[in-house]
Q: What sequence folds into this?
């Protein structure tokens, strides 16, 4: 049963296990004529990369992306883009105790129950290492969106009981990368770090959340109801490992807000177009974008890999067992999830831009049926 | 751009506008041999039906479902099931003021901006009337799931600041239908009714939430990561008009819970199979079901149609305008959303049962390749 | 298992059995702003309709299409179009002998073997009556294509040993409807009628073929390799009941032609664009359209319903049996298949026009994000 | 615009250009527990490989497949299988003359017109080198089918005017690989070789056809009408570069056969099940398999790359030009297309086996929900 594909016109298909030879993603439907900056893809991978600080796993992966197809002389050709990333630092030995004795709240048992077997090294296919593929593909999507004036930013809005005050889009651009907790509000970032270290010191871990905002989205994206923008964004985010909630606009708090308070009245903008005066709706009305920023929040539960002693059962021996997960693990997920959330938003919005005809599916610039070779250089000097 | 299809193997495609001649849904992929009780479909439609009490719209629709195909002598034949529901009580006149002057926080402007036009009567395609199709199809799905021992229940867990204490699955079965607010906790139901009437009296409306629980789901459903059970369920629920949050398991609260607290340790069940001791995970680990109940919550914002005066602009006249939405509207959405949430859960889980091979896609009972005519009666006496 | 959906962006989902209450089709993805002429849909249905002459079945169906949604004041709104056609003249009694004794070369046994049951009246779902849905949807697609300057024509090119000489696109426009055999070459039409009547008189039937040509297709459609134009067209045509061959360009004869003979050299056209000098390639090179006419042929085997005595077995009694299929049946299929072939071509090319960005998926004219209500009239006078 | 994906439950997504670093294919939906013989994949690739004889291109590619994921200890794990094949012997220089001067009947112009650019080296994405991905994935599918007792064989049935007499399934198994023309009828093979060399000697090329037969298919596969077995098989085969016709059963010849002649009467088989006495229907009735062998033919036009002088135009210089295609090219396609046709048949039938529930989508053997680690060895000794 397959679940490794995402998107309708801008599609990805991924492969790879935590401890296999390589990870890979095939991007289908990227229009021709996009100037691909490999460095920009790499930069996103570096943000997601393990080993960035002592509050993230110390696994050492260079995570070098290699472009196998679909790009020529630095520009996309409209044909499938193959990206691969080698796996280097795999130490499977540590996972042997869990082959038939599932770690609490991991996918160990569910994978084995579903398939009768599983690749157990490093969590195999269920490892969050899979998200390296998403970030690589999302980096391509981000470059398309940049071309269209659309930008996506995210930051860590909650860790445990520490909640960031609302931050502006500009603040996210400036401050998210300031610290390894990736909260764009510097004082809160310091607190978050503190609380994380407290849990880490006790052999424990803690949950949190990532806020995102998307600016520059034109009005008219989305196909109600089953392809409503919030439905597709929600699916994207709830695919991220460890996600337990997706909220858009006022989110869960909308339950306590009255219609009069939440309703956004209309005024004319500088082009004499109707525009909502406020944005309690989160950029989507009736499943379709209004042109206002889309914003929301994604909650991630505490990492399930913790060094404390826990109880499990061994289905081979039929005995109860104590396990300790002593690998290299993050004590909190949101900091490394920030680029993943951005990537999934980018993949979703790019797909909508294609589906709505805002981006031509064959070529980013120029008219269909033109064949100018100067469109981008492809001939040897 | 199309967005009226849901599901991979158990699929629906819908049509219909609020004030058009009929609503309709084509169900594809329903296995043969299911005994269809038309009364059971009708019962679900009656739950969703407008005009049930003075806290719901007084629009009077009999909502009689007519089976056009795919069922013979009361059993499905494995071919597409066409269901239609006539629209009867459409009074479009009241919607004329909004043709070029969008109601606050409705889809009026976004539909017009997307398509350049829209069916404006009664909200047209953006009306929640569309969900009658979902409930009809969901009723078929529920009958399949009942055959497999899977049951879905929901109730209203929040209206404004009034929050229901947790209720059992049994309580939902017994008490949800007791009152028109559909909260399974009787005392809370009374409070919810009170708070709703307070908003209604002031020409306002209020938000709320629906909790759902699914029991009897086998372990092994779901296809990580993009077809993870929570991702698909989330997409289903975020397709419901007015949804602003989807939560699974601990949901948003998972942010404040530590790994040690949230992790569910393993024990053996009565069949000597590993089973989680608790269910903080909400029935899904690694995107795949554990066999524990799946539970979560869906938040719906306050109805946007309120009789109070609000400001908008008329894009034809170029002038500001005051609007009052005086149609027949619900002051709160969750009570009527309960059967819709159940329907979307049923459609999603049925699809997963087919995708995992737990239900044979061609016939509910019997082996592929058998052709016994006694499988169900189809011959005239 | 579902197989009633066709298309990616311009999609249809159908329902209905030969002797059920109605046939229906949901069209998703039709852009807004198309002026729908209901009479034009009806005209296509009338071409397909049974009872047109004594060489077609005498079943009497008025085949009146009813538009349920997606059209307002004569223009599409961009939302799903629901079309229904009532079944009137169903006489199931004649089919009772075949419930457990399958007719030779019909789907009786395969449907029963697959689903364990079947709707046996009139062939149920396996009846060619299903194609009424396709022709209705195809008529909408044809109106989109007409708006883009694309036209599709077909005629009967072979019946038994009688083969039509090649005819021009113009001849197909002028003469196809001249006779009930629908061959655009009048002398051949007379011969075809003669040979058909000969088989009919002997209680037999005969095979034949339909040629089609598509003009006005822009260059650049198609997505190699699995969405190559010929692959998608082939799938469309091989969905038509009784089809045994699909050919494009030189088709089967290409096997005996050398590269030098078949290769089409290039010249400049009036716009100084490269254009193939000849069209042995059939309008598609490398899976992508060249701008030349697309042409091909579809072979349909002889109707399997014949009044002559044939042998079968009854799986209930376990005995051999003689059957005679005495219903109302066509002695040859291509004449009534002409509008079906045209419809399937129209659905396919419309989908490609959307997929390539040549037609905006949201609205036929105007720019995305515009909301002019004068786009088409939708307000009561 | 994407067109690199095939299949619904057993899906492939491919990438790669003729002269890029590597070709690759991601297989999604392969059940767990299949013993993968890498040698068997390699064997199929070797059959397709260039440079096998002087009637095929002399390009020298070792075509070593590397398994990147989804297989552990020789068995599939149910997760995506990544396969890559390095490109070694790329000599792009020869293709420079054609950058703006399209070769007759190649995809040079159509790709450039569609995307505004193209990877021109070796034909880039339009090269038949892409089929290496299909053969690799098809080899996996073949191993699944072998496990279910289904076997696919093909051979060259026509080259130019030389037509093979019908051969048995056994003959195809024994003789197809005897010669480099891959005709299972030895005398005809000799003639075919002769005629091919004649064309080759004159700087020309010639068309031909491949016949295929599939045995062991259970009755009940296929989902009429748009997923009819012949529709899906046709799409598969018409995706193969250079295909101009697809026929099933009597194919094109069915036009001249009467209903009485073609209709297949029924008898009881050894299990007292109805079975067609003959197989003029080609294994499919009403779009669903009867259990009889599926057979058909695929026509491929003459290779378009020929060393003779041909005329084209250069869209940059605006001048007419003479081209000679002097690379390493096959003078006839069917011999190397044999494994490609088999692969596409295997991918299609495997998908149908999953879609019909005949193969469990999660695991090849065992029951859903079992988690026995002895299912296959995955633990270090």
A:
């Amino acid at each position: 049963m397959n679940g490794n594909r995402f998107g309708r016109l801008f599609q990805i298909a991924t492969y790879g296990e935590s401890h296999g030879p390589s990870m890979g993603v095939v991007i289908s439907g990227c229009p021709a004529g996009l100037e691909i900056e490999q460095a920009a893809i790499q930069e996103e991978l570096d943000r997601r990369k393990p080993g960035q600080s002592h509050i993230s796993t110390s696994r050492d992966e260079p995570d070098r992306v290699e472009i196998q197809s679909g790009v020529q002389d630095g520009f996309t050709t409209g044909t499938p883009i193959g990206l691969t990333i080698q796996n280097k630092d795999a130490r499977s030995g540590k996972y042997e105790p869990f082959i038939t004795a599932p770690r609490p709240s991991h996918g160990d048992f569910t994978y084995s129950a579903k398939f009768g077997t599983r690749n157990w090294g490093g969590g195999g296919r269920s490892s969050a290492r899979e998200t390296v593929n998403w970030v690589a593909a999302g980096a391509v999507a981000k470059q398309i969106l940049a071309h269209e004036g659309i930008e996506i930013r995210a930051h860590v809005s909650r860790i445990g009981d520490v909640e960031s005050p609302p931050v502006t889009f500009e603040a996210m651009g400036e401050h998210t990368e300031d610290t390894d907790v990736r909260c764009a509000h510097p004082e809160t970032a310091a607190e978050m770090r503190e609380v994380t270290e407290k849990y880490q010191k006790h052999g424990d871990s803690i949950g949190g959340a990532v806020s995102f905002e998307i600016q520059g989205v034109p009005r008219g994206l989305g196909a109600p109801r089953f392809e409503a923008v919030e439905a597709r964004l929600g699916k994207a985010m709830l695919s991220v490992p460890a996600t337990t909630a997706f909220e858009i606009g006022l989110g869960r708090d909308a339950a306590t807000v009255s219609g009069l308070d939440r309703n956004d009245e209309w005024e004319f903008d500088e082009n004499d177009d109707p525009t909502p005066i406020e944005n309690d709706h989160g950029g989507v009305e009736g499943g379709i974008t209004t042109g206002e920023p889309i914003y929301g929040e994604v909650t991630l539960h505490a990492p399930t890999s913790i060094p404390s002693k826990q109880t499990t059962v061994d289905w081979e021996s039929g005995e109860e067992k104590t396990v300790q997960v002593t690998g290299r693990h993050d004590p909190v997920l949101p900091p490394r999830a920030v680029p993943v959330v951005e990537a999934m938003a980018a993949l979703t919005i790019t797909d909508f831009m294609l589906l709505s005809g805002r981006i031509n599916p064959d070529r980013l610039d120029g008219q269909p049926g033109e064949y100018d070779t100067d469109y981008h250089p492809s001939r040897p000097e």
